[in-house]
């Protein structure tokens, strides 16, 4: 996976650097070591600083020989690198007819970079690079270092404070630094402040030094050139955003290639793809809170290409370097980046053109002009022998066909209702969102939010400006959908190598893992979700418990039917009245699913989640699983079993907090241990749980809310989360 977004890292690092510089400068200005109290007007009370203000603060810190932590030098390097990267990129975009705004922005970039380098030099950065940069500890916790300064000042005896600092001898210091900022380990929770007793003859200072700190939330740098500086930051934000798209796209492409060629389960790739889409969405929200109204895909693309994609093509270059034994870099290959691919421009144009074509008549059928372009699409087209232009056109036809099927399926309930007497739904006014009133009717698994957004755009009146409705996460998700299919056909894209081709995957059927999960055709004995539900019915009837669980089993049966009808297949394949047939009908009426590995993958992920929730709810309703685990533990502790039963022992070890109070297996008093785990009959705990279940049934709007596991006594999610954290090297929190 990629690291944090460049702009967000730059913004964070800039804030950390300013926090340290402003607060250290303020402390020095307030000090009376020179025998004179500095003017109160010189103290920064707002947390804001101009670019040129960095120089004055650096000089003050240097004059007082204030120690500079290694992490501060690294923050300088990180900020300078980010600024330089973007400045170089946009410098290459500048031509003889470049607009004045871009020229002023690049001048602002250079001024900021030069100022940072000057401040770095004043603080002894050049000497640090020669003596300490290579050996500094890269694992330093930035916040731990920076906020250590704050707690150092909590001593009332300012003269005695230096005695503590003499003990800090860990890291190499800068030549400017006479002493090292101490690193204090993080504790759990807040601790009371400790003040030293003042020495005799000294008057105690009653002012709390902590109140003099400028909080990090208030820290902000103000560009000297005003609006030009804001444009400069926006260019940095745009560049880092587009770079993240390219990195994440390359990663998801590799995942779907593993699905097609190496057998990776599509639910895994679907889950990770959803994660990358969420990353794009969160990054967009985090960045463009600084630039409201400039967060649509088209605005971002016009910014990075300066409104001219053809001129921008070839301006962005990518180089591959190799390191020799001495650590020197040697260029191996350099190529111009295909920005229409790496900036997702093709995906955006195909999505936009589909929406505009659908809006033309809103019948679910392409216009005659569009139909003429896409009608000859062939899923078995030989991509290896095709030209780049032919492959791009083949992909465009697929995208538009697939989107027509997606919107027709997602809107089918409302469209059919409009044929009923007395019902007239105005398409542009319908709430098509995944959480809207029509979401109670299941028509799709896994892509409901995306389908709702695209349907909402497509159902607008002709002439509606939809460019303001298309955001980066829509385009990125569209690209992931398309890539999952083209990769299975042997075609992937590389920023360095361009079009990469191989033979289509022989076992890369999109529905492969869905069919394994459901086993609609009952090809295996006692396997697949469909057979499991039928087997459960037989067991409940044989044990005479169907009446007790009738209402719950009806819900299970509904979920089973939804899986059969809409997971990996759709009623659309057999034709629906008033709904146009599939655009893929000439090759495969189920093309919406068969030609979309990602739809099957994310659909399977949602299906597995629902099946898991139902299973956990079933365990909650049936006492046998918990009783079996407690009985097994009792007979093992009593020595009645020569060895533990493998399955029971595994469940006990993995989910001890689920089955046993405080996660402790009882060695005696087994009845009391059971009651402590499940609650006394008629207790407040049991009553509250029953009340929560009734409330959930009454107000749940979908199956996910109906089987919300938060209130379940038996819930493996917390246990599994703890094990995942442990496997990742993160210490899990203790259970309450």
Task: Produce a short descriptive summary.
The protein is mainly α and 736 residues long.
Outline the structure in words:
With 736 residues, this protein is mainly alpha-helical. It has a domain at 1-31 and 43-127 and 218-224. Helix content is 54%, strand content 4%. The longest helix is centred in the N-terminal third of the chain and has 36 residues, at 227-262. The protein contains 30 helices and six strands. The strands form three sheets. It has a two-stranded parallel ribbon. The protein has a two-stranded antiparallel ribbon with strand order 3-4. Strands 5-6 form a two-stranded antiparallel sheet.
Strand content: under 5%
Specify the biggest β-sheet: 2 strands, parallel
User: How many DSSP helices?
Assistant: 30
Percent of residues in helical segments?
40-55%
Output mean pLDDT.
80
User: What is the strand arrangement across the widest sheet?
Assistant: 1-2
Properties at a glance:
single chain; 736 residues; mainly alpha; two-stranded antiparallel sheet; globular; disordered C terminus; UCP028035
Give the helices and strands, then pairings.
Blueprint: H1 6-30, E1 48-50, H2 53-63, H3 70-93, H4 100-122, H5 125-131, H6 142-152, H7 161-165, E2 220-222, H8 227-262, H9 266-287, H10 297-304, H11 309-312, E3 317-323, E4 329-336, H12 339-342, H13 345-359, H14 368-374, H15 388-410, H16 412-417, H17 448-458, H18 472-488, E5 491-494, E6 498-501, H19 512-518, H20 529-542, H21 550-566, H22 591-594, H23 597-621, H24 624-638, H25 646-654, H26 656-659, H27 670-678, H28 684-699, H29 703-706, H30 717-727
Parallel strand pairs: 1-2
Antiparallel strand pairs: 3-4, 5-6
Helix pairs in contact: 1-2, 1-3, 1-6, 2-4, 3-4, 4-8, 8-9, 8-10, 8-18, 9-18, 9-23, 13-15, 20-21, 21-23, 24-25
């Amino acid at each position: 996976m990629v690291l944090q977004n460049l702009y967000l890292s730059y913004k964070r690092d800039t804030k950390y650097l300013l926090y340290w510089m402003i607060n250290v400068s303020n402390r020095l200005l307030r000090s009376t070591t020179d025998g004179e109290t500095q003017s109160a007007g010189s103290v920064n009370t707002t947390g804001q600083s101009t670019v040129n203000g960095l120089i004055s603060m650096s000089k003050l810190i240097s004059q007082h020989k204030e120690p500079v932590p290694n992490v501060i030098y690294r923050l300088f390097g990180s900020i300078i690198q980010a600024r330089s990267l973007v400045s170089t990129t946009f410098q290459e975009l500048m031509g003889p007819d470049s607009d004045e705004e871009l020229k002023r922005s690049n001048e602002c970039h250079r001024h900021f970079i030069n100022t940072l380098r000057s401040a770095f030099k004043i603080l002894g950065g050049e000497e640090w690079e020669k003596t300490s940069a290579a050996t500094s500890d890269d694992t330093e916790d930035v916040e731990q270092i920076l906020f250590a300064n704050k707690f150092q000042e909590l001593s009332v005896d300012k003269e005695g404070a230096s005695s503590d600092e003499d003990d800090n001898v860990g890291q190499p210091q800068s030549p400017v630094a006479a002493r090292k900022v101490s690193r204090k380990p993080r504790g759990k929770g807040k601790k009371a402040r400790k003040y030293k007793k003042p020495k005799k003859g000294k008057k105690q200072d009653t002012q709390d030094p902590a109140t003099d700190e400028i909080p990090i939330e208030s820290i902000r740098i103000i560009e000297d050139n005003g609006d030009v500086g804001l444009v400069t930051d926006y260019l940095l934000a745009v560049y880092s955003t587009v770079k993240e798209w390219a990195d994440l796209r390359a990663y998801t492409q590799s995942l779907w290639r593993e699905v097609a060629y190496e057998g990776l389960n599509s639910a895994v790739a679907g889950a990770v793809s959803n994660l990358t889409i969420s990353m794009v969405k969160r990054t967009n929200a985090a960045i463009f809170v600084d630039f409201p109204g400039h967060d649509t895909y088209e605005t971002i693309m016009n910014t990075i290409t300066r409104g001219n994609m053809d001129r921008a093509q070839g301006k962005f270059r990518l180089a591959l370097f190799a390191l020799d034994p001495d650590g020197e870099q040697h260029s191996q290959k350099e190529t111009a980046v295909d920005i229409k691919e790496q900036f997702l421009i093709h995906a955006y144009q195909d999505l936009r053109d589909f929406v505009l074509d659908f809006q033309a008549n809103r019948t679910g059928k392409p216009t005659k002009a569009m139909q003429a372009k896409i009608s000859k699409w062939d899923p078995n087209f030989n991509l290896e022998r095709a030209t780049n232009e032919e492959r791009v056109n083949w992909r465009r036809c697929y995208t538009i066909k697939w989107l027509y099927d997606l919107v027709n399926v997602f809107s089918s309930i409302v469209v059919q209702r409009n044929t009923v007497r007395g019902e007239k739904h105005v398409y542009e006014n319908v709430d098509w969102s995944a959480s809207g009133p029509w979401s109670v009717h299941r028509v799709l698994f896994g892509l409901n939010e995306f389908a709702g957004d695209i349907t909402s755009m497509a159902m607008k009146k002709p002439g509606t400006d939809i460019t303001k409705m298309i955001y980066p996460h829509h385009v990125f998700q569209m690209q992931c959908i398309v890539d999952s299919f083209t990769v299975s056909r042997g075609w992937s894209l590389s920023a360095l190598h361009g079009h990469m081709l191989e033979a289509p995957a022989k076992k890369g059927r999109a529905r492969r893992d869905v069919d394994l999960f459901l086993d609609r055709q009952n090809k295996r004995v006692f396997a697949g979700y469909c057979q499991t539900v039928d087997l459960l019915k037989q067991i409940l009837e044989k044990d005479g418990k169907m009446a007790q669980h009738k209402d719950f089993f009806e819900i299970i049966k509904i979920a089973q039917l939804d899986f059969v009808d809409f997971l990996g297949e759709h009623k659309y394949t057999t034709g629906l009245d008033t709904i146009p047939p599939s655009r893929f009908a000439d090759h495969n009426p189920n093309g919406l699913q068969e030609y979309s590995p990602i739809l099957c993958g994310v659909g399977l992920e949602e299906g597995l989640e629902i099946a898991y929730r139902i299973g956990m709810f079933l365990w909650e309703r049936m006492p046998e699983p918990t009783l079996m685990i407690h009985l097994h533990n009792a007979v093992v502790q009593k020595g009645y079993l020569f060895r533990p039963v493998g399955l029971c022992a595994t469940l006990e070890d993995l989910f001890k907090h689920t089955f046993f109070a405080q996660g402790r297996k009882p060695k005696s008093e087994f009845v009391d241990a059971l009651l402590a785990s499940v609650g006394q009959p008629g207790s407040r705990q049991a009553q509250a749980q029953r009340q929560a279940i009734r409330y959930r049934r009454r107000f749940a709007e979908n199956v996910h809310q109906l089987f919300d596991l938060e209130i379940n006594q038996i819930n493996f999610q917390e246990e599994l989360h703890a094990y995942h954290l442990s496997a990742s090297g993160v210490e899990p929190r203790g259970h309450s």
